Amino acid sequence: MADTPKLRVAIIGAGIAGLAAAIALKHHEGIDVQIYERATALAEIGASIALGPNGMRTLDRLGVYNALDDSVAFRNISRHPMIYRQVMHYKTNEVVSTDSHQGDVEYRHLTARFYRAHLQEALLEHIDSSTIRLSKTFDSVVLDEEKDELRIKFADGTTATADLLLGADGINSAVRRFFAPTSAPTWTGWVAFRSVFPISHVEHISDLPDEACHFWGPDRTLFVSKLGKGLFTVVASHNSNPDLPDAEYKGAEWDSPGDVSVLRDYYRDWSPLVRSIVDAIPHTNVYPNRAGHGLDSWVLGGGRVTVAGDAAHAHGGAFAAGGSLALDDAWAFAQSILTVFPPDSSRKPSAADLQKALRLYEKTRKSHTDRVLETVHKGNRKRTERIGRRETDEELRARMKNREDVAWIHEHDVQFTFKNALSSLFDERRS
Ligand SMILES: Cc1cc2nc3c(=O)[nH]c(=O)nc-3n(C[C@H](O)[C@H](O)[C@H](O)COP(=O)(O)OP(=O)(O)OC[C@H]3O[C@@H](n4cnc5c(N)ncnc54)[C@H](O)[C@@H]3O)c2cc1C
């Protein structure tokens, strides 16, 4: 192994997918991973993010135990992933329906909520910081056939070489756009107002929920939850019809400062509990939700390039599934590489081996994430249809009770799917 040339893997983006993929490959002495990140620093950025049992199990599998710790991962004691409530003009706060884990989920894999920076820090603890190149914005990639390597160009004019490239550069992925220029996600009309602040701002509220709760009203929702390290999060929302030229928040910038007085106005008719939480929000940021369609293929650049996380499936964070999908992608990507290049291998994988690995990765992940995207687009269409049509209390309650059961997303078993994909690819080869 010491004399075998290393397989050079370039990862674009030091988000959740990129960091997890690097962690999953780091024990292989024959693989050199370099991460290229657009940001100038990996600063504390973002608000709250949830991981379902699938993402929690993948963190466990990757050995990222620090992220499973109660100090950063907030779980509902009741074991319900969330509690759906409706709060309307009669201000009941009553629990109309609950969701629950379907399978056998042990405590450390229960759905958890993180301050995104805590999750990112936990992942970063497992990465050699010298492998992360900051201020490197992906621009383009070509295959140098003579040298049999990829030449990656960055926006600052510098270049890097690699054998394989993973685009983990988020929802507006430049890697995905490079191969599929018309794949850019579009605004869904939904806007989230995310706030994270010390819990001391809301501790005076006598009936503050101990659990993560999702309040539903006829035209918007409010999500509240405790987070690790004494933090609290609120996610408020607004819906517009994205097709209208003068739609409110059309063109709003992602993660731009919002106005808390607007939120107080949105929720003025809601229950006293909701109003006291919204009144206590010290600041908020605006996150216009964007979603796109799946790629025809995840095997790009002649079998040398692929994508993971939001870059592969721009689902816009629906069902709070983005973090877990990114982790499962990262694990499946790494596992596919390790299949064609096991740690005891005495030769660097060929171009054909790499292509096979990417086909295995695609087979493991694409049909599942395509189904997630279909479900997301269906939900977005229904939400837009409801705009301007005031729901009755009965209709709202029915919508809450009959909402789609998405345990298949949160409890998806990537390991099982990987094994099936592996055997079906071998069956294809034999027949
Ligand atoms: C700053 C930030 C804050 C977020 N906040 C929240 C939040 O509060 N709640 C929530 O649910 N989700 C949030 N998200 C999205 C969430 O992290 C993802 O949906 C999910 O975790 C999937 O992760 P990902 O690794 O695919 O993408 P991301 O976590 O978005 O990571 C993508 C990474 O690629 C980098 N990048 C982008 N373009 C380029 C380029 N051209 N070249 C090099 N690097 C590039 C980005 O800077 C980023 O570090 C946030 C994402 C980011 C980047």
UniProtKB/TrEMBL annotation:
TM spans (from-to): 7-25
Domain FAD-binding: start-end pairs: 7-177
Protein name: FAD-binding domain-containing protein
InterPro entries linked to this entry: FAD-bd, FAD/NAD-bd_sf, FAD_monoxygenase
Keywords per UniProt: FAD, Flavoprotein, Membrane, Oxidoreductase, Transmembrane, Transmembrane helix
Record family assignment: Belongs to the paxM FAD-dependent monooxygenase family.
Organism, scientific name: Phialemonium thermophilum
Endoplasmic reticulum keyword on record: no
Superkingdom classification of source: Eukaryota
